[in-house]
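Data availability (excerpt). The following record was deposited with the supplementary files.
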Amino acid sequence: MARILLEIVLPFLAPFALFYAYRLLVTRGQRFLASTPWFQLTVVGLILVCASLASLAFIGGQMPRGVYVPPHVENGRVVPGAMRPPTDPH
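Predicted structure:
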């Protein structure tokens, strides 16, 4: 849940929050919802979400052709699943 919040929701809501804070400081709390550029804020939010997902695709993850080892029990303890390098080089 935290991953979804950090990777998708926060980058999308960031432009809205920054614009809201800016307008609140500039107008000192006057009514500003009528003049809010919702379309531009939504586009900027979607661009930030796409950028965060693309950066995670290039930065994170495991090596290609890795071997997935599922969770298993060793000596009475659960060993979490993991990606391991392939045994034979191709």
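Summary of structural features: The mean pLDDT is 82.
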